Amino acid sequence: MNRHIPFARLHNFRDLGGYATEDGRTVRPGLLFRADSLGKLTGRDGAKAADAADVENAADAADWGRFLSLGIRTVLDLRYPWEIEARGRVPEHPSLAYHNLSIEHRPYDQATLPASVAAGPYLAERYLEVAEDGTKEIRETLQLIGAAAQSGAPLVFHCASGKDRTGLVAALVLALLDVPERTIVEDFALTERATPRLVADWHAANPTSELTWPAYATAPAEVMTLFLAALNTRYGSVQGYATETLKLDPAFPQALRTALLDRSS
Fold first, then answer.
1. Domain layout of the chain by residue ranges
2. What DSSP character marks residue 191?
3. pLDDT, tens digit, for every residue of 62-73?
4. Alpha-carbon gap, residue 110 to 88, rounded angstroms
5. Which CATH number is associated with domain 14-260?
6. Is 232 helix (H, G, I), strand (E, B) or coil?
7. How many CB atoms lie within 10 A of CB 245?
8. Where are the beta strands (DSSP E) in the chain?
9. pLDDT tens figures, 156-214
């Protein structure tokens, strides 16, 4: 199943709706989205672009119209402020509330890693660092997701490629919703469908640099499997991490389930 929503500029935009939980309930569609950088949207007006011969302008306008049609009301940008300054943010719009919550505190450059670095153990360790360093920002991210879900207003969270920081938050949310681990791992690995376009974006943005890491923009299932195993070992469960380390209210997981899951059939 291809869960990607098609855009010209965005390559990893997905709806987390439709996943089944352990007790047979389903994540409601159209409420929670994950994405790569929304800084690639221009906010170009479709009516103006329709009169132009410029194909790129028309593609930008179509992307912006498609994004607005999803009814998203909250954007959570998980990138560093310096990434936003360099690459831009989602265009301002009266319907959007924008929050920058940089959950990663120790930057690293995947593109320049040597080929000898194994993606699974390396990235799982980076994710664990984020889970331990970014507790304040991750807590706020989850609280905003919960608030949006309770109001019924669609929300999207994103980083640069929509894989690592975004994948970590998606995994936490799905686990709190009681989605099976195998499904969480499969959702993470869906980024592989976007890998060629993400790599092409990197080359376009860095024409004089060399991409040395073959695993760049890939999403091996092992990464998420190892990360979830590490959380379970250190905290007992994702729920334990959420309540004991993130200091979320113990009632938060159930409130999230009530807001984001369909009723049992």
1. 14-260
2. G
3. 999 999 999 999
4. 20
5. 3.90.190.10
6. helix
7. 16
8. 14-15, 32-35, 74-77, 97-100, 155-158
9. 999 999 999 999 999 999 999 999 999 999 999 999 999 999 999 999 999 999 999 99
